[in-house]
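Hello,

Following up on my earlier ticket. Below are the two sequence lines again, exactly as submitted.
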Amino acid sequence: MSSTWVIAQKELLDLRRDRLFAVLIAFLAVATLISVGVAAASFRTQLDAYNLYVQQLAASGSTTVPAAPQLFPLQLLRGGVEYLEILGALFAIVLGYGTVAKEKYRGTLQLLLSRPVGRFAIPAGKVLGLAVVWFIVVALLTVTTTVAILVIGNAPLQGIDIARILIAAVVAWLYLLFWSALAIGITALSHRLSTGLIVAIVVWLVFVLIIPQIGDTMDPDNQVPGGLFATLQIQKPDELKVLANFAVFDSIRNGLEVSSITKHFERLSFAFLGIKDKYNQQPLGLVWADMWGYAITLAAAILASVTFAVGFTTRRNLQRKIS
Amino acid sequence: MLTTRRARTAHLLLFVFIGMIIASSIIGWVTNRTVTGVYEKVVADGLTTAPNPFAGVTPLYYLRNAVIYVVLIGSLMAIVLGVQATLRDRKAATTDLVLSRPVGSVSRLLGQLAGLGVVLAASIGISFFVSWVIISVINGAPLGWADTGRVIGFALLSWVLLTTFALLGMLTGLRSKQETTALLVPFVIWSAVAFVLPQIGTAARPVSLLNPVPAVSSTGGYFDIVSMVTGPVSMTEQFKTASSIILQDTAVTGNAAFSILILVGVLAVMMVIVAATPRSRMRSGLNE
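Thanks for your patience. The regenerated structure is below:
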């Protein structure tokens, strides 16, 4: 355990000195803050349009007052969650790759392997180091975005909102750790270092971008701007009745979506933050009752990813690497 | 071209790109059939009298998803090819050998670009030709001259976008001190161009930008002003706009000329920047 912790500390020190890491995290933080700012500006635009409409109605002598748009503060985080989903995963891959690649590039691999460290100490130490790094990064992003909601979004937060944000932060931490561990395993298995990075990026491309995109594309309701059923003026119960006749197609579509770990992360985060309308302002117990399956699969995926990284980052695999 | 043929890792991205462009037509067709089935069921149940929103869509509708695969997979593939082209020379120090011959640095770089251009053109050509065949089979007859011309126009525009990203990859491959940085910097730039810039100007969420149809600007003071600045530099959105118009997607209207002009302009600027790389930079080694 002690050698594992020593290697984890070394990773922390390396990353603290790494300018590229600082640039990546700064980019992620700026993108997340921009998304909160843009969402808040979009809401204000809606509110201005609403106020103008109400004024025009009053001027025309109408006494009807339409419902005002309502701000749910946590929904301002939607863009930030999506940035973590796409860019966070990409940066997690780069960090995972970097922890293996740097030892080869700097020539420190042979030195590391010459020390009396256990079979799993090196990969476990690297995974542990990245887990700590991602914990710190997610904590900083959480604090920053929470302050952004209060200051930029000018939206008050309740105690339950903070609890929801913390749950989403834990889910994000696990998701990022999944990608870093996967990248460590793939890089360790690849004969050439750059191959490891490119293969990991192809995996990212397929599971983060392509599969969810195909799932969305195949959704019949996404085929028309504003929604197919809304365009045809079909009520929800009738929509469900009609779709029951296309159960096989819908199962394939949903099966594709849930084969991506990204969708599990997205559905969990959106549910707990109340971004998905169905769960907005619902008690946490009710959300958990619906979402525990996703939490289990996400946990299983992380366990598999960490096992893969630790199991395949062997002395033999590391030594046969060429840059 | 020879070195790209030997770079087996890059083949992985090439296969994913070609495969997904071809698959996009089939996915589009299956979805369209299902939606038509849904509409027929709705009508049979007497739930609507509205006309079928898909009546009269052009056969090119099946190709609309290819737009997003060019932006997602094609761009990243082009970046990797561009980075590898220049970085390989620096790692193996072959630039020293090549520049010892009567070859100028501009000729060397433009020669590399020409090779990459041919590889990209071949990938786009193969994938779009197979898509043309699939759409013709689905349609029950070969696509007419007008539709074929539109497919060719879309393919040419895809080549312009991918070559621009390949040039970006070449540039970071020439300028970076480490291989990781050379690959990562263009990925970050791509992320900013594909997600952050369009979001600032339109309030579109990052995931909604995976839609083949360009994001529509939110109307309002802030967004009207900002989108005037971010709109022209959001290259991937300009590509989506021009492609959707070329492919006659009814969700997008307007003139494609402005978007095409921007894409060609950025390509020209990138070519000048890469060609202006000094010999000393081309010959510099990596810091790893």
